[in-house]
């Protein structure tokens, strides 16, 4: 970290300002593009539930499209944000730190996009089928009960599930970073493994719809990533010990 210690303070803040503005302009540009293609974007988001929606407020459709544009821009610029964070701290890292953080960065981006694909193609359809099962449709039924989904409420539910999944899939990255900061240790994680297993199912029950299948679809990847985190930390400790022995 010697680079940052000897770097003039105004250069330090100018670097932060430059990279923050770059990310900000990227978000604005992506937002404008997403709003221009707002109908196509909403059609893609609505596929897991259907294509029939209503709005009951005069400004609801307009505000929903603005929110969609903002969320899509955040989603698309997330890798760019991680990249600028990486480039900013890069000069102050040792060679072995650069290698490890480069791998963490790539895995974080991969898990972020993997979570959205898993949610869109598997979790959301299962969850929405569960909610749609409460409809009462048919001439032989005692009464008629049919969902007329509001576009804004659907978007909020969709994004809540999506960002919850994204956070859960970043779980191993968080554990590895906490370990690098010496806030947790590998032995502590192994010792508390059974509690993490319980926590995984508790989180899945909180953020997923109330059906067992969706909870397992969320909990199982969290547990797999937890075990991968332990394996990665074991590999990092072994590599660090070998590097220190050869020095």
Automatic annotation (TrEMBL):
It is found in: Membrane. GO terms for molecular function: proton motive force dependent protein transmembrane transporter activity. GO terms for biological process: intracellular protein transmembrane transport; protein transport by the Tat complex. It is a multi-pass membrane protein. It comes from the Eukaryota. One of its GO terms (cellular component) is TAT protein transport complex. Keywords: Membrane, Mitochondrion, Transmembrane, Transmembrane helix. HAMAP family: TatC (MF_00902). This is Sec-independent protein translocase component TatC. The lineage of its organism: Eukaryota, Discoba, Jakobida, Histionina, Seculamonas.
């Amino acid at each position: 970290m010697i680079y940052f210690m000897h770097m003039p303070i105004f250069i330090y803040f100018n670097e932060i300002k430059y990279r923050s503005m770059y990310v900000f302009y990227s978000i604005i540009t992506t937002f404008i593009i997403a709003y221009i293609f707002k109908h196509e974007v909403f059609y893609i988001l609505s596929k897991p539930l259907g294509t029939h929606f209503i709005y009951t407020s005069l400004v609801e459709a307009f505000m929903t499209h603005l929110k969609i544009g903002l969320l899509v821009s955040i989603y698309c610029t997330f890798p760019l944000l991680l990249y600028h964070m990486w480039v900013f701290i890069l000069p102050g890292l040792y060679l072995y730190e650069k290698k490890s953080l480069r791998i963490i960065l790539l895995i974080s981006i991969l898990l972020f996009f993997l979570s959205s694909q898993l949610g869109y193609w598997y979790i959301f359809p299962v969850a929405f089928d569960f909610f749609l099962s409460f409809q009462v449709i048919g001439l032989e039924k005692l009464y008629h009960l049919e969902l007329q989904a509001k576009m804004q409420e659907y978007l909020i539910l969709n994004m809540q599930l999506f960002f919850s999944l994204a956070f859960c899939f970043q779980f191993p990255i968080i554990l590895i970073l906490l370990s690098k900061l010496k806030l947790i240790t590998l032995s502590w994680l192994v010792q508390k493994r059974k509690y993490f297993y319980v926590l995984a199912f508790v989180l899945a029950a909180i953020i997923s719809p109330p059906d067992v299948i969706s909870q397992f679809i969320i909990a199982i990847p969290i547990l797999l990533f937890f075990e991968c985190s332990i394996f990665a930390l074991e590999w990092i400790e072994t590599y660090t010990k070998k590097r220190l022995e050869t020095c």
